[in-house]
């Protein structure tokens, strides 16, 4: 019996030593619900993890990522986050994709006082109304992405606009921001139709017919994923887009453009990620490393996953610790080198200045691409600090 006790103690000590030799980071996301975006995203952080560990890790320790799927459900997001913190004893969390799961994790971080980097969720509430000391966000927010498009939409000088969006937080916020910013630029604008199908359940035939019946001069679209594909195909069939300008959030991202193949929309104004035509040294290095590891090209999710973990690594080095209060303090004003150029995590609202590419869609070799694009720096599409202060909850 004595030998068994000694052996058990030895195993416990060895397990403890192993745990102390790594920095455990928890990752929560909706891999089963949103595979088109999140599988490339996973590859992005896996590449970053490999590079970080090959360079000696962080604080003298290897980085270990423990990932959990939340089924695209806010309740499950909190449940698996708690499992990661209590059972796996991770030091911090990152991830999230849908706005509702991102908000659930934001609230969890506040209640648990644990650092959380929201990688994907776009809702403005993460850094405004629901913002807190422990939560930062990487991707450009809904407001930032819409503001990037409004600069181009206003140049069209179209009066009658139709709107289509998924009926949940992200879509509702996108439309509210588009209306507000366009009315400021163009007071005589009219919104002649508004279609808001449930996420993932669009009746594309009735939606496109309703939009066509309204006879708009232009369309603003915030659909993505499978809903976008159905909308584009039905719209092409019914001639909805002929002779009309379309301004569309996210559509230039390979995750959403590539599956459409030769049915991809032409000449839409979009935000996206033209990885094949970005020729900066930093980005070329990232693409080369990604292709070497995965024998595939990066998607926008790949970039986000990579930059998310590299941001965490930069923050941990700056803090000299994985303790949440110290890490949160280090992220305030933190500068991070990325394949898209340097970004800053703003102290005002914990939003990064990662930007987005805005351009037109086109067809080439039977697939959709972005052309005539430019990079919109995230720092250029922010609310004035005074407005942020009014919107943001106290930490």
Helix content: 40-55%
Pattern of helices and strands: HEHEHEHEEHEHEHEHEHEHHHEEEEH
Average pLDDT taken over every residue: 94
Largest sheet: 7 strands, mixed
Unreliable stretches (pLDDT < 50, length at least 5) are: 2-19
Q: Specify the structural class.
A: alpha/beta
Query: With helices defined by DSSP (H or I, 4 residues minimum), what is the helix count?
Result: 13
Radius of gyration: 22 Å
Structure description:
The chain is of the alpha/beta class and 395 residues long. The protein has 13 helices and 14 strands. The protein has a 7-stranded mixed β-sheet, sandwiched between helices. Strands 2-1-3-4-5 form a 5-stranded parallel β-sheet, sandwiched between helices. α2 (35-54) packs parallel to α11 (300-319), α7 (204-213) packs across α8 and α11 crosses α12 (324-331). The radius of gyration is 22 Å and the shape is globular.
């Amino acid at each position: 019996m004595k030998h068994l006790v000694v052996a058990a103690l030895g195993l416990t000590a060895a397990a403890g030593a192993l745990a102390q030799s790594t920095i455990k980071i928890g990752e929560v996301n909706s891999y089963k619900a949103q595979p088109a975006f999140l599988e490339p995203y996973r590859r992005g952080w896996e590449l970053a993890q490999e590079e970080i560990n090959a360079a000696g890790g962080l604080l003298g320790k290897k980085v270990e990522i423990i990932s959990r799927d939340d089924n695209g459900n806010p309740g499950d997001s909190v449940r698996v986050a708690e499992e990661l913190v209590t059972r796996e004893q991770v030091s911090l969390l990152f991830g999230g994709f849908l706005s509702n799961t991102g908000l659930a994790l934001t609230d969890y971080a506040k209640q648990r006082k644990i650092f959380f980097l929201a990688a994907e969720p776009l809702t403005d509430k993460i850094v405004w109304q629901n913002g807190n000391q422990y939560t930062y966000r990487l991707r450009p927010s809904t407001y930032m992405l819409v503001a990037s498009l409004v600069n181009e939409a206003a140049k069209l000088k179209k009066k009658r606009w139709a709107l289509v969006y998924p009926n949940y937080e992200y879509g509702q916020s996108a439309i509210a921001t588009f209306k507000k910013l366009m009315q400021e630029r163009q007071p005589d604008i009219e919104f002649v139709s508004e279609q808001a199908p449930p996420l993932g359940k669009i009746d594309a035939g009735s939606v496109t017919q309703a939009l066509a019946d309204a006879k708009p001069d232009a369309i603003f679209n915030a659909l993505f994923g499978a809903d976008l594909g159905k909308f584009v195909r039905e719209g092409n069939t019914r001639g909805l887009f002929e002779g009309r300008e379309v301004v569309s959030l996210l559509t230039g991202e390979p995750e959403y453009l590539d599956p459409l193949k030769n049915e991809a929309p032409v000449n839409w104004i979009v935000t996206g990620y033209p990885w094949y035509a970005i020729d900066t040294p930093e980005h070329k290095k990232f693409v080369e490393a990604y292709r070497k590891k995965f024998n595939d090209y990066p998607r926008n999710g790949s970039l986000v996953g990579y930059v998310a973990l590299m941001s965490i690594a930069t923050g941990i080095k700056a803090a000299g610790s994985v303790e949440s209060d110290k890490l949160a303090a280090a992220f305030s004003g933190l500068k991070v080198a990325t394949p898209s150029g340097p970004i800053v995590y703003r102290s005002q609202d914990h939003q990064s200045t990662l930007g987005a590419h805005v351009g037109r869609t086109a067809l080439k070799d039977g697939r959709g691409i972005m052309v005539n694009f430019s990079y919109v720096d995230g720092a250029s599409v922010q609310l004035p600090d005074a407005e942020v202060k009014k919107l943001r909850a106290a930490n």
